[in-house]
């Protein structure tokens, strides 16, 4: 399969050119990540399809200074979760309304948030001519707002699969794919990129 040319030069907007931060974990909540709060603080977790995704996310979370562990879900899939810590409480508060996931007002994803989103639940379609950022099927109220947020980031998507188990934001067209690829940077090392990473 042909996936186009790889981005070989770091962009000013690339995830690889910006320092890690706790807010990066907002990229998980934009996708299929979940958050809970307790007396000890707040926790963010996400179930992923592949071991490399779990490994790459754990590394990014650790770089952001948040304690993290990898384990398995009840269904045996890779699970990445932070510890319950106070430093995550503000972020989780921004992404919830009561006990319901909500998109923060005016949110525009940063390059590192887009990278986390891509690692957690991104997938290529049609031999790399389209790319989909996964959405939370249990939080349909976030789908439309997230489409608008991505548009404000310069990547206009199409909302797909809203009635199914794998909703997402589809990105098509060379310019839009190039913008996404430029933002998220190079794929994590030692991974099979075919079908899992955007390229211009």
Key terms:
single chain, alpha+beta, Endonuclease I-creI, four-stranded antiparallel beta sheet, 10 strands, 28% helix, globular
Topology:
Elements (H helix, E strand, L loop, with lengths): L25 H5 L3 E5 L2 E7 L3 H13 L4 E5 L5 E5 L6 H6 L1 E2 L2 E2 L9 H11 E4 L4 E5 L8 H10 L5 E3 L7 E5 L1 H11 L16
How would you explain this protein's 3D organization?
It is a single chain. With about 200 residues, this protein is α+β, with helices and mostly antiparallel strands. It has helices at about 25-30, 50-65, 90-95, 110-120, 145-150, 175-185, and strands spanning about 35-40, 40-45, 70, 80, 95, 100, 120-125, 130-135, 160, 170. The chain has one domain: Homing endonucleases (Endonuclease I-creI, Roll). The strands form 3 sheets. A 4-stranded antiparallel beta sheet has the order 1-2-4-3, with helices on one face. Strand 9 (about 160) and strand 10 (about 170) form a beta hairpin. The chain is globular. The two termini are about 15 Å apart.
Q: Quick gist of this model?
A:
With 200 residues, this protein is an alpha+beta fold. The protein has helices at 26-30, 51-63, 89-94, 111-121, 143-152, 174-184, and strands at 34-38, 41-47, 68-72, 78-82, 96-97, 100-101, 122-125, 130-134, 158-160, 168-172.
Number of strands: 10
Query: How much is the average pLDDT?
Result: 90
Per CATH, the class reads Alpha Beta
Shape: globular
Which superfamily, in CATH terms, is the homologous superfamily? Answer: Homing endonucleases
Strand order in the sheet with the most strands: 1-2-4-3
Q: Hey, roughly how much beta strand do the residues contain? A: 15-25%
Domain unit count: 1
Structural class: alpha+beta
Instruction: Quote the distance from N terminus to C terminus.
Output: 14 Å
């Amino acid at each position: 399969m042909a996936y186009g040319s790889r981005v070989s030069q770091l962009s000013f907007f690339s995830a690889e050119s910006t320092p890690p931060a706790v807010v990066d974990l907002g990229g998980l909540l934009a996708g299929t990540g979940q958050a809970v709060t307790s007396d000890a603080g707040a926790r963010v977790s996400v179930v992923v399809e592949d071991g490399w995704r779990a490994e790459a996310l754990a590394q990014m979370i650790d770089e952001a200074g948040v304690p993290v562990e990898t384990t398995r879900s009840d269904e045996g899939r890779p699970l990445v979760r932070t510890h319950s810590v106070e430093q995550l409480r503000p972020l989780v508060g921004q992404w919830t309304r009561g006990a319901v996931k909500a998109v923060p007002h005016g949110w525009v994803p940063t390059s590192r948030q887009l990278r986390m989103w891509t690692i957690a639940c991104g997938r290529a379609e049609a031999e790399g001519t389209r790319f989909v950022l996964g959405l939370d099927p249990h939080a349909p109220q976030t789908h439309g707002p997230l489409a608008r947020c991505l548009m404000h980031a310069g990547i206009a998507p199409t909302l797909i699969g809203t009635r199914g188990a794998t909703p997402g934001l589809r990105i098509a067209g060379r310019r839009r794919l190039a913008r996404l690829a430029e933002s998220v940077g190079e794929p994590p090392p030692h991974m099979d990129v075919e079908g899992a990473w955007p390229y211009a």
